[in-house]
């Protein structure tokens, strides 16, 4: 135990924890808008494009992070343009960039004379080798993503919810579409060191998928996803640090698997909540059709607040549902509805 | 036809010689339409007659291939006062990939009044609750939009437009696929709006409970306006002296195969109709 605390006190570990916290907070913000547009895989597409960026950085000697930011922003804008021009072919645009980005990255890394191992630190993350500058850059970029993602939430929400309405409301929807794409590209580059380019999308999407099992509002989903993202990122790092000597638990996959574990827990709860809600949805009020009265003699059970039967509002009274029918107490008898 | 013509006084919407082409195919042509302040206009016609395209052209969602459009006495290109316009798009659902509460969807209607990076003010909140009140969904404000029925979601979309407190409403088939009680609720909401002095342009295939509210009917056929005048009763529609209108319904039966596509994709039927239908004289 004291070894573990000692490890947590080491500088590289503290830098990693700060980076994980900021990444975990920022990635789900963009992820929420991507999921809202049903573009959950866009983060993955940009992640693949960023591989080419990293490789270009290795080739030219520029910082791989900044090269990745630049190339993935360009890639994100390209995806947005293809999506806008090509209408329904958003997924095809993503596929083109997936493969182009990955193949280009591996090819250029080879040309740069770098080993695959060097590229792999970007593909699967290397959070424990971050320098102070890396951490500062991560904090700054994550801060920008969170600030814009939350500050412009009303506009981004409206554009993602209903583009035509947003356009008639006078919003420049192209600007906001590109903004989301650029924010996604920045988050990808930020999360690159934490979970790696191939797993970036998981940190953007899985917390959102988890949060929306339990929430009913957009705001609730966004905030819950940020908390879940931060918990998964920091928790995954702590788990990997706690691995006994002789075993290696890579932080990136640990973070993603922890996020998926959260989803696995929330999913059944979400299913239960939704089915409960469906059963209790009020019955529509229709003009009185002939209903049948059932005497209390035939139905000795007395319904009430805690009788165990599902109580559903129906106009001005409450129906009780059991054994495939529903009825309401009316004086001395029950009205079958 | 083109070139700035001085606007009619009191006109909220004025389209002169309007034509719309989608992807190079002509859909609407020779449209002259003036909507005056406070009017309740119903745009009617069969599926594929171009009524949705016309309303989308009036909101600027479809660019005009020819003609000039004025909104509130300002040429469309110079018009930026979008808070005066409310739009209810033709949409089956108000839901998206993320849960959103009824209140949140309605609140997005306040965007035209909100500067960037500012939280909602008291006036915003008051407008949102008023909008929910008008459509009768105040008690469902915190519920998820996706848990509502189709008709209720349609009312949410109307409340969203209402929250912006516009003077001019465009509604694109708000009653499509909505059950009768909900159609009645919609009609009641629109009646409140109209009573407050709003100008309403409503696209509808059938008026149903909204019929008594209409001041004027505009009937479209094959991308042209074929009738523009006082509202028609159900009986008049089927009388011979309104042959144009009767034709609309006959055509709808005869050319049913054009309208098989789901109503939401209004591009495809529009493309087929003007080229296929028998050539008729110009609009009267």
Q: Per the principal axes of the C-alpha atoms, what is the gross shape of chain B? A: globular
Radius of gyration of chain A: 26 Å
Biggest pleated-sheet summary of chain A: 5 strands, antiparallel
The share of residues in extended strands of chain A comes to 5-15%
> Span between N and C termini of chain B?
17 Å
Oligomeric state of shown chains = heterodimer
What strand line-up does the widest sheet of chain A have?
1-5-4-3-2
Q: What is the average of the pLDDT values of chain B?
A: 81
Q: Quick one: how many beta strands of chain B?
A: 10
**Could you list the spans of chain B in which at least 5 consecutive residues all have pLDDT below 50?**
237-284
Q: What is the N-to-C order of secondary-structure elements of chain A (H for helix, E for strand)?
A: HHHHHHHHHHHHHEEEEE
Q: Radius of gyration of chain B, Cα only, in angstroms?
A: 19 Å
Q: Report, as a whole number of angstroms, the end-to-end distance of chain A.
A: 65 Å
SS-based class of chain A? alpha+beta
How helix-rich are the residues of chain B, as a percent range?
A: 25-40%
Number of helical runs of chain B?
8
Strand-residue proportion of chain B: 15-25%
Low-confidence runs of chain A (pLDDT<50, min 5 residues)? none
Structural class of the secondary structure composition of chain B? Answer: alpha/beta
Principal-axis shape of chain A equals elongated
Describe the structure in your own words:
The complex is a heterodimer of chains A (337) and B (284). Chain A has 13 helices and five strands. Chain A has helices at 2-9, 11-36, 42-60, 64-85, 90-111, 116-123, 132-151, 153-161, 163-168, 173-191, 200-214, 218-241, 251-279; strands spanning 292-295, 310-314, 317-322, 325-330, 333-336. In chain A, a hairpin with a 2-residue loop joins strand 2 and strand 3. In chain A, helix 2 crosses helix 11 (200-214) and helix 8 crosses helix 10. The radius of gyration of chain A is 26 Å and the shape is elongated. The mean pLDDT of chain A is 87. Chain B has eight helices and ten strands. In chain B, the strands form two sheets. Chain B has a six-stranded mixed sheet, sandwiched between helices. In chain B, strands 2-1-4-5 form a four-stranded antiparallel sheet. In chain B, helix 3 runs antiparallel to helix 4 (150-163). The model of chain B is unreliable at 237-284 (pLDDT under 50).
């Amino acid at each position: 135990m004291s070894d573990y605390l000692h490890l947590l006190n080491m500088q590289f570990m503290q830098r990693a924890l700060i980076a994980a916290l900021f990444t975990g907070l920022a990635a789900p913000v963009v992820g929420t808008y991507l999921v809202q547009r049903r573009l959950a895989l866009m983060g993955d597409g940009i992640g693949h494009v960023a591989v080419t960026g990293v490789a270009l950085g290795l080739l030219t000697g520029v910082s791989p992070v900044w090269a990745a930011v630049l190339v993935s922003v360009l890639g994100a804008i390209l995806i947005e343009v293809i999506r806008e021009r090509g209408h329904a072919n958003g997924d095809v645009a993503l596929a083109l960039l997936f493969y182009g980005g990955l193949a280009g990255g591996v090819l250029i890394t080879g040309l740069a004379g770098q080993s695959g191992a060097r590229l792999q630190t970007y593909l699967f993350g290397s959070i424990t080798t971050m320098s102070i500058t890396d951490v500062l850059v991560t904090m700054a970029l994550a801060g920008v993503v969170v600030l814009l993602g939350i500050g412009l939430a009303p506009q981004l929400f409206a554009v993602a919810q209903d583009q035509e309405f947003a356009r008639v409301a006078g919003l420049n929807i192209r600007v906001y579409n590109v903004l989301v794409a650029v924010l996604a590209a920045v988050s990808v580059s930020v999360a690159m060191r934490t979970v790696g380019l191939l797993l970036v999308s998981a940190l953007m999407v899985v917390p959102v998928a988890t949060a929306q099992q339990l929430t009913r509002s957009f705001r609730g989903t966004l905030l819950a996803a940020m908390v879940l993202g931060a918990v998964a990122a920091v928790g995954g790092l702590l788990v990997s640090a706690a691995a006994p000597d002789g075993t290696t638990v890579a932080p990136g996959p640990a973070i993603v698997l922890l996020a998926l574990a959260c989803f696995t827990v929330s999913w059944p709860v979400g299913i239960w909540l939704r089915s409960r809600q469906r059963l209790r949805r009020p019955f529509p009020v229709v003009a009185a059709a002939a209903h049948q009265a059932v005497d209390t003699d035939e139905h000795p059970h007395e319904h009430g607040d805690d009788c165990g039967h599902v109580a559903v509002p129906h106009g001005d009274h409450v129906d009780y549902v059991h054994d495939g029918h529903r009825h309401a107490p009316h004086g001395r008898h029950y009205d079958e509805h | 036809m083109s070139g700035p013509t001085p606007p009619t006084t009191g006109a909220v919407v004025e389209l002169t010689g309007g034509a719309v082409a989608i992807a190079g195919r002509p859909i609407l042509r020779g449209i002259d339409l003036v909507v005056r302040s406070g009017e309740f206009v119903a745009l009617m016609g069969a599926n594929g007659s171009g009524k949705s395209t016309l309303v989308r052209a009036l909101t600027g969602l479809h660019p005009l291939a020819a003609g000039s459009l004025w909104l509130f006495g300002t040429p469309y290109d110079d018009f930026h006062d979008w808070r005066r316009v409310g739009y209810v798009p033709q949409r089956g659902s108000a839901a998206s990939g993320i849960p959103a509460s009824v209140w949140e969807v309605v609140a997005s209607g306040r965007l035209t009044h909100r500067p960037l990076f500012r939280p909602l003010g008291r006036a915003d909140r008051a407008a949102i609750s008023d909008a929910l009140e008008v459509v009768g969904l105040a008690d469902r404000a915190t519920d998820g939009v996706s848990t509502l029925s189709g008709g209720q979601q349609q009312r949410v979309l109307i409340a969203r437009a209402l929250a912006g407190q516009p003077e001019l409403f465009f509604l694109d088939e708000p009653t499509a696929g909505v059950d009768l009680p909900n159609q009645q609720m919609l009609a009641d909401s629109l009646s409140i709006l109209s009573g407050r002095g709003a100008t309403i342009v409503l696209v509808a295939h059938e008026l149903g409970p909204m019929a008594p509210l209409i001041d004027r009917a505009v009937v479209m056929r094959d991308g042209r306006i074929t009738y523009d005048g006082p509202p028609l009763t159900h009986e008049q529609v089927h009388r011979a002296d309104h042959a144009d209108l009767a034709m609309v319904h006959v055509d709808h039966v005869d050319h049913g195969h054009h309208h098989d596509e789901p109503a939401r994709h209004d591009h495809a039927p529009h493309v087929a109709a003007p080229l296929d239908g028998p050539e008729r004289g110009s609009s009267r």
